[in-house]
């Protein structure tokens, strides 16, 4: 009898976040950030969908594997956070999640999207630059644990469209 190869192909879904996703998002926060948002803060964000947009990355077992959020103010967006569980990183999921979030923002009349990123987060910086973000300023000692400066980056709708999809 020959050997049988077994493998599993996992399906991943990106969808709008719901209030009941708060605990899953909180789990991603705790694994991803040295100063995670509280569960109460996440619940507050999800409950105010008139001002916020959140998407989750969900695997076929229903696990929230990542999330991305944005505050929408007039014609500008501010990315609040984007994070993935460690086992889902460096596989293209973060880029996919970010593109879905950005395209939703463009569709909802955002003309610019801003974000902050740690100086040391080389992978995130590369992704943001790939999608058309430009460094516009520095926020000194923006992050704690460890204390680190942040780049403020901006992507204009027309720049994103020019870099291709």
Describe the structure.
The chain has 165 residues and is of the alpha+beta class. Helix content is 31%, strand content 35%. It has five helices and seven strands. It has helices spanning 22-32, 39-47, 93-107, 122-130, 157-163, and strands at 12-16, 52-59, 64-73, 76-84, 112-118, 134-143, 148-156. It has a seven-stranded mixed β-sheet with strand order 1-2-3-4-5-7-6, sandwiched between helices. α3 (93-107) links the parallel β4 and β5 (112-118). α1 packs across α2 (39-47). The longest helix has 15 residues, at 93-107. It is globular. The model is unreliable at 4-8 (pLDDT under 50).
Q: What are the key terms here?
A:
165 residues; alpha+beta; 7-stranded mixed sheet; 7 strands; globular
Q: Report the β-strand fraction as a percent range.
A: 35-45%
Counted beta strands: 7
Mean pLDDT: 90
SSE-based structural type: alpha+beta
Radius of gyration: 17 Å
Summarize the entry for a quick read.
By secondary structure, the protein is an alpha+beta fold. It is built from five helices and seven strands.
Task: Show the helix and strand layout.
Elements: E1 12-16, H1 22-32, H2 39-47, E2 52-59, E3 64-73, E4 76-84, H3 93-107, E5 112-118, H4 122-130, E6 134-143, E7 148-156, H5 157-163
Parallel strand pairs: 4-5
Antiparallel strand pairs: 1-2, 2-3, 3-4, 5-7, 6-7
